[in-house]
UniProtKB/TrEMBL annotation:
Belongs to the KAE1 / TsaD family. Fe cation binds at residues 118, 122, 316. One of its GO terms (biological process) is tRNA threonylcarbamoyladenosine modification. Binds 1 Fe(2+) ion per subunit. It is an enzyme of class 2 (transferase). This is tRNA N6-adenosine threonylcarbamoyltransferase.
Amino acid sequence: TQPLILLGLESSCDDTAAAILRIPTTGAAEILSSVVFGQTALHSDFGGVVPEIAARAHTEKLDLCVRDALAQSGVALRDLDAVAVTAGPGLIGGVIAGVMCAKGIAAGANLPLIGVNHLAGHALTPRLTDQIAYPYLMLLVSGGHCQFLIVRGPDDFTRLGGTIDDAPGEAFDKTARLLGLPQPGGPAVEHEARKGDAKRFRFPRPLLDRPGCDLSFSGLKTALLRARDQVIAEKSGLTPQDRADLCAGFQAAVSDVLAQKTARALVAYLAENPATPVLAVAGGVAANASIRAGLERTAAEVSARFIAPPLALCTDNAAMIAYAGAELFMTGHHDDMTLAARPRWPL
Ligand code: KG4
Ligand code: ZN
């Protein structure tokens, strides 16, 4: 048998991405190229991703990303074995742009087409980076998602719980906006929090009083707004120290909630899967050092191995889509030209 070579495409949010992945007959998958064209600058004036602007930019950049991914990998179109593309969930204009691009390439080069769930892409990344065996527990924490998944196979997931409102990344972004910090808010809030006193403001720990692994972050944002306005009313303005203390308190609350809910998810997971004690994380929020440290400690408490892929593979990219596509392809799955873009697609 020959190694497999796949092209992956991603365009479900604000990153346009293409990647070439080589799967040898034995051993680790190899990322031959991974091109990501971020749209942050296009949306920065609007305080959030504007779907129509995102879709247009994806349409403009997709074929350039494919061209660069092919050139950087040294792979020609005729060397490809399949094309994998994010078919949802996400902003529908962007997802359609990616699916149409993939269909064009698949039809033109006569290649199998594989529609990939974006969340499966994130969830399988620890297998791409660390060859983790099934099953394992995954915490997906990004700007759009927050959920605990037991990952048993490329198309076999059990959701243990997740956010009932905002995703944590979204909460970081809103916090940054409320405090006049730049977007994306996560890195900015983390930077401020380093200079702050996490004990000055006491933020709520939503849903910790209730059983289960569901989370909530929208109340935190409201609490932050109230604390900010109270300081402003008392002192007619925010000092840099006030801002740092608010960030530190907010980050401590998010970190605390994530760690404690992860502890519960681990107990539930380990009860059924004691032989594979692994906690993996993915998503942009996993870049936060204090959140990551909290999760690492939580895993250590139950002697579980902790896996966090390198940041470039934690955030949106096409290598993870090519990888998930390869796993599906190897189990005999592929799609055809009827593949539909799906705005919602629960695992
Ligand atoms: O996974 P990602 O790149 O995109 C998706 O949401 O799919 O995650 C982006 C999110 C943004 O909300 C950003 O503010 C957050 O991850 N983020 C962080 C940090 N870096 C990025 N949140 C907290 N701390 C960080 N250091
Ligand atoms: Zn994502």
